[in-house]
Automatic annotation (TrEMBL):
UniProt EC number: 6.1.1.1
A biological-process GO annotation: tyrosyl-tRNA aminoacylation
Protein name: Tyrosine--tRNA ligase
Keywords tagged on the record: Aminoacyl-tRNA synthetase, ATP-binding, Ligase, Nucleotide-binding, Protein biosynthesis, RNA-binding
Amino acid sequence: MKIDTDSQKIEKLLTRGVQNIYPSREFLEKRLKSGQRLTLYLGIDPTGTDLHLGHAINFMKLREFQQLGHQVIILIGSFTAMIGDPTDKSATRKPLTREQVLINAKNYKKQAEKILDFTGKNKVEIKFNHKWLDKLDFRQVIDLASNFTVQQFLERDMYQKRMKEGKPISLHEFLYPLMQGYDSVAMDVDGEVGGNDQTFNMLAGRDLMKSLGMKEKFVLTNKLLTDPSGIKMGKSEGNMITLADSPDDMFGKVMSWTDGMIIPGFELCTMVESVKLKLFEERLKQGENPRDLKVELAKEIVEFYFDEDRADKAEENFVQMFQKKERPDEIEEKTVSNFNIVDVLIETGLVISKSEAKRMVEQKAVKINDEIINSVEFEVKSGDVVQKGKRHFVKIK
């Protein structure tokens, strides 16, 4: 496998969207220019059924490594997801079963194929960490733990915050970085890529490989896409874009982002050239309406995951619904067995539980034929158009 050592491509890999490189940028640059084929990985704990834009940011960086000829591994945390990564969590994660984890990861490859190449001579490999972590005995775990100190873990901000608030820290949460660190040892990799919120866990693998006398592992951390206050995209905020989203949903969610996410969005979530990034920044400084730039960002993202035609159609649908306050031309029809609004919302898939359905009605987020409904006892009729929020419409048969 011939390795591409083009200086411009390497410069882009080392800078665009990158937060930090350990042990140093110079170390990784030298390795990339040596012509040696490197093996690196990204670990993903399957805590949900869909990959999201946060994963995609890291996939984009892996894509750069792959296009230079390096070996890329996607590691599914089929063991670590059962422990639960404590990073940035104010409480202990709810544990998952192996069955839940594997079900969650079922469609990951299909979704990741939108960015990475899983075919050909330099295809991305998929591995599962339960295949080696399941085999560790208690003595081996003790030996691995001897390479770390309690102080290393307690210094983490999230643990300091929990202790001040009197919240518990479970012992198994200390073992999570240890297990993730062992992944690097088991696969004998040259490096790891991840979001900068994973720095501690990734450096645990680097420390462990050094302690065991293996090699100097590089760690490349990417910036996170956050709002100006530093909060990441999330399900609770309603702006989490998954790789399974429709073009309309992707477009609409980007348009709901704050203005402060526009430039980071172009940098981290698109393939636009660096020259264009500077132009976008200049246009904002000169007072151009941020909404116009946000439209361009939404189109870039939808076009990357789908195509230009569907990006144009998504823009058209967005304008029709939000600027002209009209319904979309095509509304999906669904048959229901119960016509109470709570049951209708569940049966049509607009919500997943009765509690969510009742909350949507109470928050005046549900309309029937463009009229807000106020009662959970409302009865829907055949032919009615049910709307949840701003973007979701269903016609009842």
